[in-house]
Design brief:
Helices cover 86% and strands 0% of the residues. The mean pLDDT is 90.
């Protein structure tokens, strides 16, 4: 170990000591607990094969664009809904809603996702997973 490395270690020790002096025991305990819980969560996530698969899939460019689209849709819908009067209800209102092309496309998307999920679950159980 060089003298420069030792000097960096000494400086780091001073930094840690100064941080400890500046913090109360409660803050140090809370930070240690948060760090411990974070490491435990990270350990659990990295051991979860399904979560790792989902993260890999979410990293694909088309899924990144899909996630951006979904988040933008939630924001726009939230703003739009906040400015609209409450739905009047009834069969007429429902028929008007389902006759909207945007609603039909949204229902089509949900139906496609549900169908793919169903197929995937059947395949998993067929393979004994």
């Amino acid at each position: 170990m060089s003298e420069a490395d030792l000097q960096r270690l000494v400086e780091f020790a001073h930094l840690v000591t100064s941080a400890q002096d500046a913090m109360s025991d409660e803050i140090v305990h809370r930070l240690a607990s948060a760090l411990s819980e974070g490491i435990t969560l990270l350990d659990r996530l990295t051991r979860n094969e399904g979560m790792i698969h989902m993260l890999r899939e979410m990293d694909r460019p088309e899924n990144q664009r899909f996630l951006v689209c979904v988040s933008n849709a939630f924001t726009a819908a939230s703003r739009e809904l906040a400015t609209m009067p409450p739905a009047s209800g009834g069969l007429t209102g429902l028929l008007k809603l389902v006759s909207d092309p945007g609603t039909q496309e949204g229902l089509r998307l949900l139906a496609m996702v549900a169908s793919k999920m169903s197929q995937g679950l059947r395949e998993i159980h067929r393979r004994g997973g």
